[in-house]
Amino acid sequence: TPLSQIRNFSIIAHIDHGKSTLADRLIQSCGALTAREMKDQILDNMELEQERGITIKAQTVRLTYPAKDGKTYILNLMDTPGHVDFAYEVSRSLAACEGSILVVDASQGVEAQTLANVYQAIDANHEIVPVLNKVDLPAADVERVRAQIEEVVGIPADDAVEVSAKTGLNIEGVLEALVTRLPPPEGNAEAPLQALLVDSWYDPYLGVIILVRIKEGTLRRGDKIRMMQAGSTYHVDQVGVFLPKMTPVDSLGPGEMGYINAAIKTVADVAVGDTVTLDRTPAAQPLAGFKPSIPVVWCGLFPIDADDFEKLRDSLGKLRLNDASFHFEAETSAALGFGFRCGFLGLLHLEIIQERLSREFNLDLIATAPSVVYKMHMTDGTQEDLHNPADMPDLAKIEKIEEPWIKATILVQDEYLGSVLTLCSERRGIQMDLTYVGNRAMAVYRLPLNEVVFDFYDRLKSLTRGYASFDYQMDGYEESDLVRISILVNQEPVDALAFVAHRTVAETRGRAICSKLKDLIPRQLFKIAIQASIGSRIIARETLGALSKDVTAKCYGGDISRKRKLLEKQKEGKKRMRQFGKVEIPQSAFLAALKMD
Ligand code: GDP
Ligand code: MG
User: Fold this and answer.
1) Which of the chain's ends, N or C, has fewer CB atoms near its CB within 10 Å?
2) What is this structure's pTM?
3) Ligand 1 atom with least separation from CA of 165
4) Cβ neighbours of residue 293 under 8 Å, at least 6 residues apart?
């Protein structure tokens, strides 16, 4: 296929605006799958993704489209994740394409991630085709949303394509727009190979698979490839494309996207963003890659059953193969034993990994409070990154601490604006801008990330009945008056519950956690003090009264089997507990304790 008949594009949208539905329609109308093969939402194929309605990993599909001009085009579609935590994955999908379809729900209008995604697409030099989706809905207001796209997003929307991805209305309009409005890729089939390593994952049968976008040159089965930055070389066993099933081909030329299977064993060798070239005739320069993703939220994961430690290591390794943005390193906790300190792109990313570990790998885990990365400047002149509040040295040894800030964009109906502004200022936010998009307010705030990681989304959603949209980007580090708050249960510090907070909120948070723990920790046979402290100073205290009666006491005598059942149930419950000195703390307490209301 000549380059002039190839188009590479991404679909970008705010969550729920119909990106996956549109992608499925495009696949269906290009006949890539028969109706029978066409499962709902092919691109969101991870079970968890389907349930949560989000796209976690970027996927790619090659479509064949006979256009109105009589020529047949190859359309490579890269799906992109819709959640802010995965902004990094969006940027690398965009780097592999020349253009984007911007899907906007015509009944909702422009939202926070619409803006964030467009800015990324503009950064990637994309041609953008606006698509107004859900025109079948009575609430659709095409003219209003068209105006919003022009005014707020700042791109022309005169020839926005009006569609209903659900009913299939005007899908051809989208396909024609792709062909006529997006630029074809450029590149020379005879040049030395330069292929951008866009993604990699682990296939249980084939091993590590890498997804590439060929920029220059040609890649053939049997070639010996070299990773330009990693320096490693491999023999290419298979080259292929996604139709959307993996389908081997003989070669991939410039402008094409496809996969390589080369018996790569370790994911460390396949840094996403690296350039793949040929070993014998290498390119002079690697491509401009993208910045590596940096985990911004860390927490400890510990097996409930200490015997699961190796299984946990193994499972984390497997997850990492499919998710280069996820990091982990071994950690020991006085309270929780052997486990791992894990880094995530955000709180949703953390929840997803946790859920996958429990569902796919059958692991029962305790997660410690999420923490951001603080920069500590020590009095001896050294600098350290703090990933774990439990590791914070004595304040006397610290000259100053810096914490990460974000710039957040929130769109919300006027009636909820008051509570959103209150929430932001409670979280030490600084208002940067407040404007209107139609009847909605758009507030731009700078916020410390540490105030956002625990429960900001949840609070925002409940305050606005789910109507607010939110997006953020990292916005540098700033010095701050931070302290470490320790939690003591029965006089024993529980390192896994330690957290860092601004001095002004330390006492309130400490008190809230103690009172939560009082409800979360089951009564024991003795009285327990639950305390919060900064250094040796106690800032909050609750007392959990003693339990008086044995659970089996009420089935005295008679029913032995009922008694046994109760005891067994109690034993089952114990497995989900952790022993701290003489006290058992249920797993659920660890995260729940840190959610603030
Ligand atoms: P994504 O989060 O952007 O991938 O959005 P989805 O494709 O998962 O769609 C979100 C919801 O909107 C789903 O319930 C879809 O069925 C629905 N939806 C998508 N497109 C349309 C449309 O054109 N009309 C209507 N009425 N609903 C749609
Ligand atoms: Mg989706």
Assistant:
1) C
2) 0.75
3) 23
4) 88, 89, 324, 325, 345
